Automatic annotation (TrEMBL):
Principal location listed in the UniProt entry: membrane
CDD domains found in the cross-reference section: TM_PBP1_transp_AraH_like (cd06579)
Name assigned to this protein: Xylose transport system permease protein XylH
Gene Ontology CC, one term: plasma membrane
Listed Pfam families: BPD_transp_2
Domain of life: Bacteria
InterPro entries per the UniProt record, alphabetical: ABC_transp_permease
Topology relative to the membrane: Multi-pass membrane protein
Organism: Neiella litorisoli
PANTHER family, per the entry: ABC TRANSPORTER PERMEASE PROTEIN YPHD-RELATED-RELATED, XYLOSE TRANSPORT SYSTEM PERMEASE PROTEIN XYLH
């Protein structure tokens, strides 16, 4: 058991390095192809803002896939929730806090609706969420009358279009570094106290130094343009919070247990139905956050918003190491996968690659990632 866990951790670390290498390779390729425009401060800021929406969707999706389910409705759900937020803001003039609360509550309910059918009515998640994909899009078109709801208020624009000041960005960055150093050394000390293996201190220090250099460089580049985009801050906060939930809480461990072996989890006393319902509700909440950012960025609620966004979210999870069989996956890996997808989108758009080729490339990458997951399982 311990040997299996160690090998799994090594595989995750290797996969993280591979993904980081892929991001660097993509950046170098598009930087050369665009004669340096790809790595300008403005484009890096735009790239990270693009990543925020897919990354937040992927964070919710990774919990669903780890529990051995799937959600094909997140694109249509995001469009519907974004449309609802725009309607409340433009047509009814609701204050921003009330609009945010209503949208988050609606996301939670729609996610729970999907989860109820999957967990308690035993309908396969593929069918439930496929139905949701069609129904949510239909409701959105019905609510908006097939027209774009615009323009949203200046207050609404804060969510997706604002930036942190340089000073605030550096303060938050320093706080993140202190948190990273504290949790790393505390975790290492706890492992040693319990007689478990831990990384050698030099290796730990090198890893922390690399993380610090990456964060400082990123902050410097973003502040060179307009500062840290608010959507990126939201993504980072949710990534840290949900990674903690996945790795350090009883709920997170139960989700992995249910996805790894459903019957064993049931026999051990876990309330499988309640866990799956909670997973889908959490996913709906993440979709609502992404919907608010999307409507804020667009300055409108569009009947076509969120089209095929579910495929980007699923691809991000799979590229990030989440197994479609369930039981394996990380929040951090899903966000890295989202960054890879956004990097490809951004680079191909800058090169004016035809849309159909963009779809072909992204589809091929998804197929390759799933094949690699299947092939790695066959070798075990």
């Amino acid at each position: 058991m311990m040997q299996s866990m160690i090998s799994r951790l090594k595989a995750i670390n290797l996969q993280t390095l591979v993904m980081a290498g892929a991001i660097v390779a993509i950046a170098i390729f598009f930087s050369i192809a665009t004669e340096g425009d790809y790595l300008t401060a403005r484009n890096v800021s735009n790239l990270l803002r693009q990543t925020a929406i897919t990354g937040i969707l992927a964070i919710g999706m990774v919990f669903v896939i780890v529990s051995a389910e799937i959600d094909l409705s997140v694109g249509s759900m995001m469009g519907l929730l974004g449309g609802v937020a725009a309607i409340l803001d433009v047509w009814y003039g609701w204050p921003l806090p009330l609009t945010i609360l209503a949208t988050l509550a609606a996301g939670l309910l729609l996610g729970a609706w999907n989860g109820w059918w999957v967990a308690y009515r035993k309908v396969p998640s593929f069918i439930v969420t496929l139905a949701g994909m069609l129904a949510f899009r239909g409701i959105l078109i019905g609510l908006t009358g097939g027209t774009t709801v615009a323009p949203t208020s200046e207050a609404m624009g804060i969510i997706g279009q604002s930036y942190l000041s340089s000073t605030l960005g550096w303060l938050i960055g320093c706080g993140c570094l202190l948190l990273l150093f504290g949790t790393t050394f505390r975790g290492r000390q706890q492992r040693l106290q319990h007689g478990l293996s831990a990384k050698p201190l030099p290796q730990t220090l090198i890893g922390l130094a690399v993380a610090m250099a990456a964060l400082v460089t990123l902050l410097y580049v973003l502040n060179d343009y307009r500062g840290v985009p608010t959507p990126v801050l939201i993504l980072a906060g949710l990534m840290v919070l949900l990674a903690f939930v996945a790795n350090k809480t009883a709920f997170g461990r139960r989700v992995y247990a249910v996805g790894g072996n459903l019957e064993a989890s049931r026999l051990s006393g876990l309330r499988v139905e309640r866990i799956k319902l909670a997973v889908f509700a959490l996913n709906g909440l993440m979709v609502a956050v992404a919907a608010l950012i999307l409507s804020s960025r667009l300055g409108a609620g569009s009947p076509s918003a969120g089209t095929i966004a579910e495929l980007d979210a699923i691809a991000a999870c799979v590229i990030g190491g989440t197994s479609l069989a369930g039981g394996v996956g990380t929040v951090f890996g899903a966000v890295l996968g989202a960054l890879i997808m956004a990097s490809l989108d951004n680079g191909m758009s800058m090169l004016d690659v035809p849309t159909y080729w963009q779809y072909i490339v992204k589809g091929s990458i998804l197929l390759l990632a799933v094949w690699m997951d299947v092939a790695s399982k066959a070798k075990r």
